[in-house]
Amino acid sequence: MPQITPQDPGIAGLSGRHLWHAPMSSCSQRVRIALAETGADWHSHVINLGRDEHASAAYQAIHPQGLVPAYAEDGRLFIDSVDIIAEVAPDLATDGIEDLLSLADAAQADLKLLSHEFLFRARPAPTPEKAEAFQKDHRNATLTRFKRDWAAGFAPERINAAVARTDAGFWTLEERLSDGRSFLGGETFSLADIAWMPNLHRMRLMDWPFGRYAHLPAWFERVTRRESFTSGLMDWQPEGEPALFAAYTAERRAAGSDVTSVPHFRGLG
After folding, report:
1. CA–CA separation, 33 vs 108, rounded Å?
2. Domain 11-92 is in which class?
3. Largest CA distance in the chain
4. For the chain, which residues make up each domain, given as ranges?
5. Which of 25, 142, 175, 255 is the most buried (most CB within 10 A)?
6. What global pTM score does this model have?
7. Backbone angles phi, psi at 256, to 5 degrees
């Protein structure tokens, strides 16, 4: 979604760059990487998703869908991460990447589902009272329904379909890289790389089988050497969380229920 009119009248009076974001939000990671690439100064407003701060009336007056990130520049408000990175780093908008940006945008729903299934179940479950309050306070019906589905347990078919679509997206990147290019858009680092870096990082946390692809792992190692990946993503990860996810992934693998156990990866669907 492009620029929107803020419901919070205070946004229009802000000067400079302001980002409302969460440390482990992949869309927030995109924007922080883009900001790091530009070297621009910005004001950080951390939204604690664990405390359901995105369900507050104050934050939903900034982002009407109650999601992160939201970005304001001199009073102009943007709420879609792909639009935000284009606004933040227009010099990285090279030709021929529009389809990759659209694909990255579409991939977010599956990334969210797989993250919640294969990583975020390692975190303590919300109390019934907290879950009920979120359902009452958050006005995004899609998100509240997703939270109910997660608590009830995602249907295996839904998980498998998300894995299959994610794998198909990675094969699209693999095909693009198969001509020997250094980056997704060619020989120049671009918004397409920024859009996909957090997705591969997230899937690596759940031990996605990247050995399936000949060129994608080398691209990822290349882009992770950029300072922007460190300062925009790695430095924001909560201490201990990667280790928590690694232990949970090992537990799921031992139980035969990790991401590689789904029918798509076993040749069954």
Report:
1. 17
2. alpha beta
3. 56
4. 11-92, 98-266
5. 25
6. 0.97
7. 70, 30
